[in-house]
Each structure stands twice: as C-alpha cells, then as structure tokens.
Amino acid sequence: MPHHSLLLALVIAIAALVVAPEVFAAPPEGIPAGAVAAEVVEIIDGDTIDVLLEDGTEATIRLIGIDTPETKYPGRSVACFGPEASAYTAKLIKPGREVWLERDVTNLDRYDRLLRYVWVEKNNGDVYQLNAVLVRDGFAAAVAYEPDTKYAPAYDCLLYTSPSPRDRTRS
Q1: Which of 30, 92, 104, 131 is deepest in the core (most CB within 10 A)?
Q2: Does residue 70 have an active-site annotation?
Q3: Which of 87, 86, 116 is nearest to 102 (CA)?
Q4: Which of 62, 84, 116, 121 is catalytic?
C-alpha cells in the first residue's frame, strides 16, 4: 500500500507541472530570481499600478526609486506632465499584462502600497525594468529614498541622458 500512495503523489505532482507550469516557473532570463509574477489590473498614475498577485489578492504597487508628476493626489491639482507620465506608463503596460515584482528593503510605504521594481518581458523575450524606462524616457525623476536604493546609481545615469517630455511635445 505505501507504494501506491507514493505513486499517486508522484502522478499528481507531474500532472500539476503539466497542467499549471506557470505556478512553478522561474522568472524569465534577465529578471532577478527573487521577483514574483503579477498581472496588471489598472494604471493609477505614472508611478503607481494595481496588480493581481499570484495568491489572487489585489495590491497597489508604488514603483521604487522614481517619481512622476501627480495626477490623483487628494487635495492637489494635476501636476504638469502628470497625464503624459500616466499615459506613457499605460502604453508600456496594459491591464492583463504579466509583470514581475522585485522587492528592495522596504515592503510597504506609509499608504500601505507595496514598494517594488517592476520588470516586464517583451514579446521578443527581452526584458526591461519599467522604473528605469520611465526615467530614461523623461517621464519620471530618479529619487532615492533610503534604504531602497539598489538601482539609484543607474537611475541617476539615465536621468542625465534622458530627454524631457517637454522636448518631445515641442517637436
């Protein structure tokens, strides 16, 4: 009898791998090993998104190390280029898109949003970090908030070589 139980457990484990391999899948090459998969639900503004986590819970993600002009801050008017930053984030990641979330040191900010670097696998298999692309393309400022500064030096380099959204709107 013990052999039947072991065989049954092995068959169930193999079936689970065949039916739902994504549950056991590692992040794609180029995405940090500790990153976890999530599905984009909504773009809140340029540096904040809602996602569906692997466990089925919805969470708000605040992108670490960057700041975009505000569009939904209670009691404040919409900041210059805030709508453009939000639209650019929405262009890069649409609802339903799989992203990978990487934690730095701090888990939550004072508004109970998860603080994460957001990684995206492109259709051709290449990957990029959303936080860095927003800085590189001039839609976000690089802002280092201790202790979450893993990519701060890279963002600073991108900041000085990136175009301003204002420059793109003039051409």
Answers
A1: 131
A2: yes
A3: 116
A4: 62
Contacts of 52 (CB under 8 A, 6+ apart): 38, 39, 41, 58
pLDDT per residue over 84-124, tens digit each?
A: 999 999 999 999 999 999 999 999 999 999 999 999 999 89
Question: Is 103 a known active-site residue?
Answer: no
Give the confidence band of 21 by pLDDT, cuts at 50, 70, 90.
very low
CB–CB of 40/100 below 8 Å?
no
Between CA 110 and CA 113 the distance in angstroms is 7
Look up 166 and say whether it is catalytic.
no
Residue 17 vs residues 5, 56, 66, 125: alpha-carbon distances, Å: 19, 19, 38, 22
What pLDDT, in 10s, does the model give residues 130-140? 999 999 999 99
pLDDT of 38 reads 98
**Alpha-carbon distance values, 51 to 4, 24, 41, 70, 129 (Å):** 42, 19, 5, 20, 16
- Catalytic residue, candidates 102, 113, 116, 136: 113
pLDDT over 50 (residue 17): no
pTM given for the model: 0.78
Distance CA 52, CA 58 (A): 4
